[in-house]
Recover the amino acids of this structure.
C-alpha cells in the first residue's frame, strides 16, 4: 500500500467565488492530502455553500468528503455576503448538484485531529464558527492542530463589511475572539495584503484547461461585478486563494508576529481585529500576520496550477 506522506489538510470554507479558487488550486496542486472539506455558513446559507463546495469537487472529480457545519454563527443571526450573489457563487449554476447536510463539521474536525495529532493544518476561509465550536468541544483541540491558516481581519486598512471589520470576522466575531484566544499556532492573511493583489476577468483566460476556464470566466464576471459595485474595488480580489497559496509557497510571504484581539461589543466596530501597537506594551503575540506577498510569483503559480489536468476529464463544453 503506497504510504501517503503528504502533509494533511482540512479546508473550512463558505464557497464563495474566492473559496472556489482556493479549493481548486489546493486540490490541483496535489501538494496536500486533503482529509476533508468542512462548510460553514457565511457567504451564503449552509445549504448553498455546501452545494457549491460539492459542485466544485465534482468539477474536477475530487473524492474529498464534505462535512457541513452549523447554519448560524455562535451568538448572532447569520448575515450573508452580497458580492457572491444569491446562490453564493453566481455564474456557476450548482442548483442540480446533490449534497447532504451532515451538520457535524466541528465534531469531524475533532475526530480527525485526534486521530492525527499535530499533523493537520486547518485552512479557514470563512467565519470561524466551526473552528470555535471544535475548541469548545475538545479542550485539547488547539494542542492537536498543527497550524491554523486563516483568511480574515483588517489591521491597517478599512473593513469590507463595516467601517473596520473584514467579512469573516464580522459574521462571527465571538468565534474569531475564541480562536485568537486559543493557543493554536495561527497565520493570518488579512485584507491589508489581499487588497494588493487585483486580478481582472481576462487574466483567467490564462487557465489552459478549456472546460475549467469556460466555468471560471462567467464566475469571475459575476464576482467582478459584485466586488466593484458593492465594495468599490477596481478588480477581482482573490482573498482565500492567497491564504491557500501560503500553504503551497510560504516563501512568497512576509510575516510579522502580532498581538491581536477581536472586538465583539462595539455597535460600529464589532468584528474589528485590533493589533497592539504601543511599543511599551508589545509582548506575547498570538498570530503571524502576512504583511507582504510576491504578487507576480502568486499569479504565475496560480494560473499554472489551475491549468493542470483535472482528476477526471471534464464533460465536453458542448454538454
Ligand atoms: O473578506 C473576504 C472573505 O469573506 C473571503 O473569505 C470571502 O470568501 C468572504 O467569505
Ligand atoms: Ca470565504
Amino acid at each position: 500500500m503506497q504510504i501517503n506522506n503528504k502533509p494533511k489538510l482540512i479546508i473550512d470554507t463558505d464557497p464563495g467565488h474566492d473559496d472556489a479558487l482556493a479549493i481548486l488550486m489546493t486540490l490541483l496542486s496535489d501538494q496536500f492530502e486533503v482529509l476533508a472539506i468542512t462548510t460553514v455558513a457565511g457567504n451564503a446559507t449552509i445549504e448553498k455553500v455546501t452545494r457549491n463546495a460539492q459542485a466544485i469537487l465534482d468539477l474536477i472529480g475530487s473524492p474529498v468528503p464534505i462535512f457541513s457545519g452549523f447554519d448560524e454563527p455562535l451568538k448572532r443571526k447569520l448575515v450573508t455576503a452580497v458580492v457572491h450573489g444569491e446562490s453564493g457563487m453566481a455564474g456557476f449554476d450548482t442548483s442540480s448538484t446533490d449534497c447532504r447536510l451532515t451538520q457535524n463539521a466541528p465534531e469531524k474536525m475533532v475526530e480527525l485531529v485526534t486521530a492525527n495529532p499535530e499533523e493537520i493544518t486547518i485552512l479557514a476561509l470563512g467565519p470561524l464558527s466551526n473552528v470555535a465550536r471544535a475548541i469548545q468541544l475538545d479542550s485539547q483541540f488547539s494542542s492537536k492542530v498543527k497550524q491554523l491558516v486563516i483568511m480574515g481581519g483588517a489591521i491597517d486598512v478599512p473593513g469590507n463589511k463595516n467601517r473596520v471589520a473584514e467579512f469573516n470576522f464580522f459574521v462571527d466575531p465571538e468565534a474569531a475572539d475564541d480562536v485568537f484566544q486559543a493557543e493554536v499556532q495561527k497565520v493570518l492573511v488579512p485584507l491589508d495584503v489581499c487588497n494588493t493583489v487585483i486580478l481582472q476577468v481576462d487574466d483567467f483566460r490564462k487557465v489552459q484547461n478549456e472546460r475549467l476556464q469556460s466555468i471560471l470566466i462567467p464566475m469571475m464576471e459575476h464576482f467582478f461585478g459584485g466586488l466593484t459595485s458593492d465594495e468599490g474595488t477596481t478588480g477581482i480580489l482573490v482573498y482565500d486563494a492567497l491564504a491557500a497559496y501560503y500553504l503551497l509557497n510560504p516563501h512568497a510571504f512576509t510575516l510579522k508576529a502580532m498581538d491581536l484581539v477581536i472586538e465583539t461589543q462595539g455597535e460600529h466596530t464589532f468584528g474589528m481585529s485590533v493589533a497592539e501597537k504601543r511599543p511599551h506594551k508589545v509582548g506575547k503575540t498570538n498570530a503571524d500576520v502576512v504583511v507582504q506577498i510576491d504578487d507576480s510569483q502568486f499569479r504565475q503559480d496560480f494560473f499554472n496550477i489551475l491549468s493542470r489536468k483535472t482528476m477526471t476529464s471534464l464533460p465536453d463544453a458542448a454538454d
In short: The two ends are 38 Å apart (CA to CA). Confidence is low (pLDDT under 50) at residues 313-319.
